[in-house]
Specification:
Layout lengths: L6 H10 L5 H12 L6 H14 L4 E5 L5 H7 L7 E6 L2 H11 L6 E6 L2 H7 L4 E6 L6 H9 L2 E10 L8 H8 L7 H14 L4 E6 L5 E6 L1
Parallel strand pairs: 1-2, 1-4, 2-3, 4-5
Antiparallel strand pairs: 5-7, 6-7
Helix pairs in contact: 3-4, 8-9
């Protein structure tokens, strides 16, 4: 599952991380069987910890697929919490509902269509915002999230090192080379944007396909 770390470290994470709940294991297997891009259990566990550290009650996801990330976040939310799932494909959200209906926890809202437009309809504050949608929209989504993010809230972005990009291409773009494609240009722009923002503290974590974590000061 890990596109960034070596097989040795990947094996260590498999051995070291706690065994996921049965539903999460089932969702992981489903994603692999369907060849559906999921963050995987290592990133899922990181999401759970990030939400716990933020004392999160409300989460918004720009891009949810069949609910894999949401299921991990939800394990850290209180019963009276809320998580908003978005996806262009209504069938993905239908599958997400089938899975999450079997999981106790915070109220889940399912929004088909454009995540950016959906976010405009929701009032803040949110404690965690996940960016896992169209890469060229990452910077705009981050700016939209800024005003609706609680103090100490977290913006997590997926695919900053792999997936639709290659890490060496992002590195080259950050060093001033012409980006090889639009996805690389978008990810490099996002990395620079969050790295240089004085209102956030950002770290880049080589798990899964690479994630960035930005905490609002």
């Amino acid at each position: 599952m890990n596109r960034v770390l070596s097989d040795t470290i990947d094996a260590f994470l498999d051995a070291a991380n706690p065994e996921p709940a049965e539903l999460l294991q089932e969702m992981t297997a489903y994603g692999r069987e369907q060849n559906f891009p999921i963050v995987g259990p290592d990133v899922g566990q990181f999401f759970r910890v990030a939400a716990t550290l933020a004392d999160a009650e409300r989460v918004f996801e720009f891009g949810s697929g069949f609910g894999y990330s949401a299921a991990w976040f939800r394990t850290a939310l209180p019963e009276n919490g809320k998580i908003v799932l978005t996806d262009y494909d209504e069938s993905n959200l239908a599958t997400a509902r089938e899975f999450l209906d079997r999981q106790d926890g915070a109220t889940a809202h399912y929004e088909a269509g454009d995540a950016m437009a959906t976010f405009e309809r929701y009032d803040g504050p949110f404690d965690v915002v996940l960016l896992d949608h169209d890469k060229p929209q990452y910077v705009d989504a981050f700016e939209d999230a800024r005003e609706k993010l609680s103090d100490g809230g977290v913006v997590v972005a997926d695919n900053v090192m792999a997936g639709p990009v290659e890490p060496e291409n992002v590195t080259a773009a950050l060093d001033g080379a012409e980006p090889v494609d639009d996805h690389t240009a978008a990810i490099a722009a996002y990395v620079e944007h969050v790295r240089d923002d004085p209102g956030f503290e950002t770290a880049f974590v080589p798990l899964g396909e690479g994630i960035s974590v930005s905490v609002k000061r």
